[in-house]
Specification:
Coagulation factor XIII A chain; Immunoglobulin-like; metal-binding; eleven-stranded mixed β-sheet; single chain; Coagulation Factor XIII, Chain A, domain 2; acyltransferase; hemostasis
């Protein structure tokens, strides 16, 4: 007896003095619902079977049946009913005898979580009436035949998103009878971009096809002068992914009553996508060391990551910004929130959010790495989610920035957003959430300054156009690039841009150049440089040009610095430096070449073959300094994919991956991955060695599940070579 009591005590959730019931923040937990609720004393000989009772419930939940077809949920690999809120769906109830509307009374009950309450939207009794009101819970009989009735059920357009348990309750003079708990009748309810009353309503069918239903996308990376793209398998319809996404909200301990609100869901998800505070989905690593995990460049999609996390409950190692953004996109699209991945080229990581990236130069004009703390990422990926913002003034709904990459804390956790893109553009950074940080990512100025011996800070150059140079996403309906820079900022130098900046400053974004600074730039000499496009493993040159626009003779001492950098702009090592003297004739131009040999950089190279070049030049006659910096990325070899056999759903075919090693060295411990939603689940193969200049071939047998245009995506990874990708579009025919 005492043992039972102690285990019961352990099971009982802890209460605090503030609330009568514990938090209801788990979709997975359930309460026990009584099958019979008796009113007072029951007469002798009472038999529940004498009254109307339910024999069976049909949910029309096959992909080809009416519910999944009308609700655009037929692609989900799930045997359960999946519907979108605010839109009617059909169910059939078979009774033990014909239903008599005059005397029989029944209703539906939808429950979610362990402590269902009607006022919290977690217990929903649905009465049968004569008509359905748009966007409100209700049911009406649309067909009667023998012992069966067919109902049209409408869910609320603000309903909680999650997995509901369904019961049918029947009233009798002596009590209420309910159907037994049956997991087969569980119903998933999702956001509905097709419903005008839903907060995520999107009124363009092509956009809904792209931002909700497309399960493969393109993520742009590289550098603003050398844009690269890679395909990413979102896989939001794959088996168990919907359950994994609902688990993320349980993990974040988001109250069930808040799960109908896309703003709350995005805010908690941006924290739980990374592992910094709460053992979330992905552990980030930016130091080129990936012990006990895999390099971020290995992943070809979100499915493996989410399923590994769902089963292990441990952060998956490792990710960088495009991995966080790819997985976040899967989460949003899976739940029905329109979403897309954004790439911001030359993205500012401003440590003190003062709209100013400070680069400090020493007396010779070289960048002082000890005092320079801000960095410019070659690119940074985040997400946009589409929703109304009733918490903000009219006009700030639509696309919202959400970012799962852990950069800075917000309200004590590593998260960012949702931030209205429209508010960013107009400088209204007072509106929640995290607008000053996002504004700085796309609008900061680069300030090069030097401290003189007397302590005065001299500003040598202010570059107002380098940051947020280009902001892009995938085109609708194709793999092309769509430039959306103008959605974030007005044209550089325009009156509107200046006004947006002044508005941001008025609302509290810090922008100051300290009082004891002097700024008199050299305006009559221009300096720039170009980097020759090069393939990994080859030599290339950097050409530095000077243009003297004045009638004066000038001479200058120039300093060239070549650095291996992480794509976040953080320097790993300087591999090349070169000082040279320049004579500048009046009204003339001159060019100087610096050769970069492969032997100088190959041993030091990081993941994404990223270089960062700094050129500074001191004009001897004036003491002024010119400064230019650029990032560049080497061309990385591609994987080639081809197919063999007929490409028909349900029939066996072959995918063949080929790769030629371009380096004059043997590649060791090489991993190949191949995946394609609807064609094959992720396959992996390890190769011990690929000799220099030799070709590797890998043949994979697969059976496509779904007809239509699908995509195969492959990646190759080893310590000497990362970010090697290949892809192939395949048209799968119907059997």
């Amino acid at each position: 007896m005492s043992e039972t009591t102690s285990t019961e005590k352990q099971k009982k959730p802890l209460l605090n003095g503030r609330r009568a019931l514990p938090s209801n923040n788990s979709n997975a937990e359930e309460n026990e619902v009584p099958e019979v609720e008796v009113f007072g004393l029951t007469p002798r000989g009472f038999n529940p079977k004498d009254y109307l009772h339910v024999v069976d419930i049909h949910l029309f939940k096959e992909p080809y049946e009416i519910n999944k077809q009308q609700h655009h949920t037929d692609k989900y690999y799930s045997p359960k009913l999946i519907v979108r809120r605010g839109q009617p769906f059909q169910i059939q109830i078979d009774f033990n005898r014909p239903y008599k509307p005059g005397t029989d009374q029944f209703w539906l009950e939808y429950l979610i979580g362990r402590y269902p309450q009607q006022n919290k939207g977690t217990y929903i009794p649905v009465q049968v009436g004569d008509e359905l009101k748009p966007g409100e819970w209700g049911a009406k009989i649309i067909h009667k035949e023998n012992n069966s009735i067919r109902l049209s059920v409408m869910s609320s357009a603000t309903c909680i998103i999650g997995k509901f348990r369904l019961y049918v309750a029947i009233s009798s003079p002596f009590g209420i009878f309910r159907t037994r708990r049956n997991p087969e009748t569980d119903t998933y309810i999702l956001f509905n971009p097709w419903c005008q009353q839903d907060a995520v309503f999107l009124d363009d069918e092509r956009e809904r096809e792209e931002y909700v239903l497309n399960d493969v996308g393109v993520i742009f990376h590289g550098d603003v002068n050398d844009i690269k793209l890679r395909s990413w398998s979102y896989g939001q319809f794959e088996e168990n992914i919907l359950d994994a996404c609902l688990f993320l909200m349980d993990k974040a301990e988001l109250e069930l009553s808040g799960r109908g609100n896309p703003i709350k869901i995005c805010r908690v998800a941006s924290a739980v996508i990374n592992s910094r505070d709460n053992d979330g989905v992905i552990a980030g690593s930016w130091d080129n060391s990936y012990t006990y995990g895999v390099a971020p460049s290995v992943w070809t999609g979100s499915v493996d990551i989410l399923l590994e996390y769902y089963s292990s409950r441990q952060p998956v190692r490792y990710g960088q910004c495009w991995v966080f953004a790819g997985v976040f996109n899967t989460f949003l699209r899976c739940l029905g929130i329109p979403a897309r991945v954004i790439t911001n080229y030359s993205s500012a990581h401003d440590n003190n959010a003062n709209l100013q990236l400070d680069f400090y130069l020493d007396e010779e004009g070289k960048v002082d790495t000890k005092t320079t703390k801000d960095s410019i990422w070659n690119y940074h990926c985040w997400n946009e989610a589409w929703m109304s913002r009733p918490d903000l003034p009219v006009g700030f709904g639509g696309w919202q920035v959400v970012d799962g990459t852990p950069q800075e804390t917000s309200d004590g956790m590593y998260r960012c957003g949702p931030t209205s893109v429209q508010a960013i553009k107009h400088g209204h950074v007072c509106f929640q959430f995290d607008a000053p940080f996002v504004f700085a990512e796309v609008n900061s100025d680069i300030v090069y300054s030097r401290r003189e011996k007397n302590g005065a800070q001299v500003i040598e150059k202010i570059d107002m156009t380098h940051v947020g140079k280009l902001i892009v996403t995938k085109e609708i309906g194709s793999d092309g690039m769509m430039d959306i820079t103008e959605e974030y900022k007005f044209q550089e130098g325009s009156d509107e841009e200046r006004l947006a900046l002044e508005t941001a400053v008025m609302y509290g974004v810090k922008k100051q150049i300290t009082q004891d600074t002097v700024y008199h730039p050299q305006t009559d000499v221009d300096m720039d440089f170009q980097v020759q496009k090069a393939i990994l493993g080859s030599d290339f040159k950097v050409t530095i040009t000077f243009k003297n626009k004045s009638q004066n003779y000038y001479s200058a001492t120039a300093y060239f610095s070549g650095n291996i950098v992480f794509y976040t702009g953080v320097t790993k090592s300087e591999f090349k430096n070169h000082t040279f003297n320049v004579t500048l004739e009046p009204s003339s131009s001159s060019a100087f070449d610096v050769m970069i040999k492969s032997s100088e950089y190959l041993g030091e190279l990081l993941d994404q073959a990223s270089f960062h070049f700094f050129v500074t030049a001191r004009i001897n006659e004036t003491g002024k300094i010119l400064a230019v910096q650029k990032a560049t990325v080497l061309e990385i070899p591609m994987l080639h994919i081809k197919t063999q056999g007929e490409m028909v759903a349900g029939r066996e075919m072959f995918a063949i991956v080929e790769f030629t090693n371009p380096l004059n060295q043997t590649l060791e411990n090489v991993t190949l991955r191949l995946e394609g939603p609807g064609v094959l689940r992720t396959m992996k193969k390890d190769f011990r060695q690929i000799p220099a200049n030799s070709t590797l071939t890998w043949e994979v047998k697969c059976t496509p599940k779904r007809p239509g245009l699908r995509k195969l995506i492959a990646s190759l990874n080893c310590d000497a070579l990362r970010h090697v990708y290949g892809e192939l579009n395949v048209q799968i025919q119907k059997l």
